[in-house]
Specification:
heterotrimer; A alpha+beta (226); B mainly alpha (204); C mainly alpha (192); A: 226 residues; 7-stranded antiparallel β-sheet; 5 helices; B: mainly alpha; 69% helix; 2% strand
């Protein structure tokens, strides 16, 4: 297109030109987006599953395979298909196909923002066997020690979440203790310099355990079916 | 002349240091060199692709609706970039978070589409966009490197200092972003002042 | 997850201030913080646009959920928010010229401001319901205004101070913003 022609076109545009341009470009953009979405959909799904699997195997030490369960009408059953966003229970099994434990997501208010964690429960022994931070914005160098501090991670080797005799609540609430003063297996040994963040973890644990432990314990046999 | 189109984005018209544009991503995701690099490359990708398309369609788009179509085109490529990053690495996607989507409102991209790509040939537009993209990535890396080295004692996750080094956590906090960019601008101002003073001396 | 409304407000306004913790809306923060009067009017306009776009974003999100097209999120956010704000601008101009004079000139400036789009993206990512979204938008707007007004106050004093020639301009504003950002970190843990 030469210069005079171009000028003429831009000088006297009519609605048809505008509609044509907007519709044409809109169509092209839609095509581009949809094709990228379709192309990357499976890869992204696989990537996400891998990330989650890595975290699950970390909170369930020794686990090598997993199965997903949901609670439907008070009954634990295996998830078939993609589900509709129900709370998921990830059961992990070791090399001999024995149940290592059940992992589930939990979250609550931290120092800066919401903290999302993944918890590993052993329903048989009624203990928490692992904790991984999935997402947090805690202060780097202080609050983010909840993710990395080895002493803090030691809390989750066998944190007691035993149920009371009627099986409906925890016998002992998970309580936060200042660093080095932990004396009972249901207490959480805090991190110096990250008191609020470790307190937040204790609160999340307490809420999640008191809500889920009764379900997990009652259905502990059902999780064993792989 | 063509190399000049490319080079000017790198230094003379550097989008961050000279034009002070696109500040939000510049400050927000530069707490490590890796994040800075990823953000820079994602922005450069969107910049080059949208400049190409805008330049190709420049005779087809009426003046009245040009901003709307530019935004449409940019938003499309940002969405494409977001899915590509997720396919490449979920971890990088998580680290950059909402700031990938916010590339849409990076004024550098709309600015290049409006000021350059809509008036120049495809080849020149690509060169210009590439120059700006590389310049933007370079600036982000400058910030990310300083913040990561001082704030975590690492560079691209490799240890720089020994284990005795106590990191300046401040540098990876939001405040550190402001300080680092402020310091870089100071340096640029200082160099400009000195150059101007020298020029004056020569002419005097 | 249940977050109380007061927490959402404090979080958006102080703890995770949009400007000082998320670096959103830096351009107007640097550009329009010259004097307190302009800054507070700009803040008001941003708060208003945030409320409008928060409602839009909530509606769009519901619609995209219904038709299962998450890939259209970004593109529809930006197009719908930009056009709604323009529409609201015309309505204000017609019915309340006084309000338009106070806020109007800023409206086109902030439509494509990253804080507005950021708000829409964050509220969707956090899964807030309608009321929570509104409170979040109010908090974010209030936080933006506070940051902008404080900055303007400092800059009014800076203008008459005898600063070295090299630091004048954006460099010193960024340094001040850094100190402000550190100060705002003191609010962390406030809502918990």
């Amino acid at each position: 297109m030469n210069q005079p022609e171009l000028e003429q076109m831009t000088a006297a545009p009519n609605s048809w030109h505008m509609i044509r341009a907007l519709a044409g470009i809109g169509l092209m953009c839609a095509l581009l987006i949809v094709s990228t979405y379709e192309l990357t959909f499976d890869i992204i799904k696989q990537n996400k599953a891998e990330v989650l699997e890595r975290a699950i195997f970390k909170v369930l030490p020794g686990a090598e395979s997993k199965a997903i369960f949901i609670v439907k009408d008070g009954q634990v059953e295996k998830l078939i298909g993609d589900g509709n966003g129900e709370t998921r229970y990830y059961a992990g099994f070791d090399a001999n196909d024995d149940l290592v434990g059940v992992a589930l997501e939990a979250g609550g208010q931290g120092f800066q923002d919401v903290i999302h964690i993944l918890l590993g429960f052993n329903p048989e022994k009624q203990i928490i066997i692992g904790m991984q931070v999935l997402e947090s914005k805690e202060t780097p160098g202080l609050g983010d020690k909840i993710e990395k501090d080895p002493a803090f991670q030691k809390n989750f080797e066998a944190l007691d979440v035993a149920l009371s005799d009627d099986g409906s609540s925890l016998k002992n609430e998970i309580v936060f203790k200042k660093n080095g003063t932990k004396s009972n297996p249901w207490e959480l040994d805090g991190i110096t310099g990250a008191t609020i963040s470790s307190k937040a973890i204790a609160a999340i644990l307490q809420a999640s355990a008191s809500q889920n432990m009764p379900v997990l314990y009652k259905n502990r046999e059902k999780f064993k079916q792989q | 002349m063509d190399t000049n189109t490319f080079i000017k984005g790198l230094w003379k018209d550097n989008p961050v240091f000279v034009q002070v544009l696109g500040m939000c991503p510049t400050l927000a995701v530069t707490n490590s060199a890796t994040n800075a690099m990823a953000m820079g490359l994602a922005t450069a990708f969107v910049l080059i692709m949208s400049s190409t398309l805008v330049s190709l369609l420049r005779n087809f788009i009426p003046k009245q609706v040009r901003i709307a179509t530019f935004i449409l085109i940019i938003a499309t490529f940002v969405t494409v970039a977001e899915y590509l990053i997720q396919a490449i690495s979920i971890d990088i996607h998580k680290a950059l978070g909402a700031f990938i989507a916010l590339i849409v409102v990076n004024c550098v991209i709309l600015g290049r589409a409006e000021a350059f790509a809509s008036k120049n040939s495809v080849g020149k537009s690509i060169l210009d966009a590439a120059g700006m993209g590389v310049g933007f990535t370079f600036a982000l890396l400058c910030l990310g490197a300083v913040r990561e080295i001082l704030g975590s004692g690492t560079f691209f996750e490799y240890q720089v200092f020994g284990h005795g080094y106590e990191p300046w956590v401040l540098m990876i906090l939001p405040g550190g972003g402001f300080f680092t960019l402020g310091a870089w601008l100071l340096l640029f101002n200082y160099m400009k002042e000195r150059k101007a003073a020298k020029m004056q001396e020569i002419s005097a | 997850m249940n977050e109380s409304l007061s927490y959402i407000f404090i979080n958006a306004c102080l703890v995770n201030n949009f400007v000082l913790a998320y670096f959103l809306g830096i351009c107007p923060f640097i550009g329009v913080s010259g004097n307190i009067g302009t800054a507070s009017r700009m803040g008001g306009a941003v708060m208003f646009v945030m409320l409008v776009s928060s409602i839009c974003a909530y509606g769009i999100h519901l619609m995209l959920e219904a038709i299962n097209a998450p890939f259209l999120q970004l593109i529809s956010f930006i197009v719908v928010i930009a056009s709604t704000v323009q529409l609201v601008e015309m309505i204000i101009k017609k019915f309340s010229p006084a309000l338009f004079r106070a806020l109007g000139i800023f409206l086109p400036l902030i439509t494509t401001n990253c804080a507005i789009l950021g708000l829409a993206l964050f509220q969707t990512a956090k899964g807030y319901n309608f009321i929570e979204s509104l409170v979040y938008a109010l908090g974010a707007g209030a936080g933006f205004t506070i940051a902008l007004v404080i900055m303007a106050g400092i800059r009014e004093d800076l203008d008459i101070a005898d600063t070295p020639k090299v630091v004048r301009g954006t460099a010193i504003i960024l340094m001040v913003a850094g100190i402000l950002s550190l100060t705002f970190m003191g609010f962390a843990g406030l809502g918990g």
